[in-house]
Target: PH domain-containing protein
Amino acid sequence: MSRVLLSLAVFAVFALIVFGMWRGWKARARRQAAFLAEFPAPPASTGTTMLETTGVYVGTTLGDDWQDRVAVGDVGHRAEATLRLTDTGVLVERTGASPLWIPVADVEGARTARGLAGKVMTADGLLVVRWRLGDRVLDTGFRGDDKDVYEQWVDALNPGGTA
Model:
């Protein structure tokens, strides 16, 4: 009998922890929705594809805080993705989630990084695109299947690049 009660107590504590995490995520999404502009929808035609790579969309964070993940809508959900650079912007086509569109005029640059949104890799394991959404600066992270293409992305997205 005491094992059953102990098991129920452990399960109840676990359920309470999961519920607290869920409420925290929802509260973060509400707070961020109050000050973030609406994310742009991809246009009907994104233009000519200049670069393309597959991998995992890691997440989007606020400004320079590599752990402050954006939770608005499904932007905070990791997913397998295809990253495309076109002449009009950057398109992150995510499996099981809505696409993320970054207009070329809002792109401020790109870099490689060790970590973003709680995902930590080896040195230069992530491609991070810095961009503006309204008056806020965001960083969007992508872990490519082929990390050798990161240099091309950084060159194309930084000022003076080909984008």
Observations:
- Residues 2-35 form the longest helix (34 residues).
- The chain is about 25% helix and 35% strand.
